[in-house]
Amino acid sequence: MIKNWPNPPDNGRVKTVNQMGFMFVQLSTLSQRFIEYATQSTSPVIDIGCAYGVAVLPILDAESTCPVVALDTCQTHLDELLDRVPDNKKTQITTIRATFPEEFSFPDNYFQAIHIAYVLQFFKGEQLKAGLIKCFNSLKPGGKLFLYTASIYFNFWRDQFLSQYEKKSAAGVEFPGEIENQHQYLPAQFDEAKQVLPIFTHVFKLDDLVKIVSSTGFKVEVAEYDDIQGVSGYESEGKGMISIVAEKPAFRL
Ligand SMILES: C[S@@+](CC[C@H](N)C(=O)[O-])C[C@H]1O[C@@H](n2cnc3c(N)ncnc32)[C@H](O)[C@@H]1O
Question: Is residue 56 a contact partner of residue 81, using CB atoms and an 8 Å limit?
Fold first, then answer.
C-alpha cells in the first residue's frame, strides 16, 4: 500500500484539494475486484475520479501490462498521482484532466473496464444517465463497469432522509435521492468534512440504481450493499454503500 499520500490520511481519508470529498485509503471489495480484473486485461482500463490514484497505483504495482487511464477533474490530483508512478511504469499510464461526463470523449468499444468510486454522488440524475451512456459506448462488448457509491442507508442519511426518499419515490420522482443542500443535514461530527464536501449530493437505494444501470443496456452481475472500511463513524449496518459490477453484453438481443 502507498504510504506517502500528499496529505497524511486522517481517519482513513485523504482530503481532495478541490472540495470533492476524500480519497479513501482502504480499498473496498468492489475496487479490489476492479484492480484484479484490470491486472488480467491487456486492453485499456480507466478510473474516473481517480484522485491521487488509490485504485490505479496497485494495477501498476502488479505485473500487469494493461494501459491505464487515470481521469480526474483536478490537475493537482493527477500530478500527485504521476509523482508516485515508478519510472518504468510511466508509459503504461495516461492521465487526463477532464470533467465526466461532459468532457469524456473516447472511441466506442475502447475500454475493457471502467471504475467509478465515490463520484456518482456529485451527479444529478440526468448527468448520471448521460454518464452511463458514455460508459456503455466506450466499453468493449464483454467489458465491465465497476461502481461504488453512497446509499440512502448511510447512517445519517438513513436517519434524516430515508422517509423523504420513500415519499418522493412513491410520488413517482425519478431521482428521489437528490439532496440539494446536504450541509443542512450533516451532523456535528461532520463539521470538518463540510469544508471538503459540495452542497449537492445524490444517494440511492440499490434496486433504484440497478434499474438505472440496466436501462442503459448493462447486464448487472453484482449488486450489493457494503460499508466503508477503515473510517470510524461511517458504520452503517453493512448498507451504507452500493457496489455494482455490470457488463456490456457481448451481443445485443
Ligand atoms: C471523493 S473523491 C474519490 C476518490 C477515489 N475514487 C476513491 O476511490 O477514493 C472524488 C474524486 O473525483 C473527482 N471528480 C469529481 N467530480 C468529477 C467529474 N465530474 N469528473 C471527473 N472527476 C471528478 C474529484 O476531483 C476527486 O478527485
Answer: yes
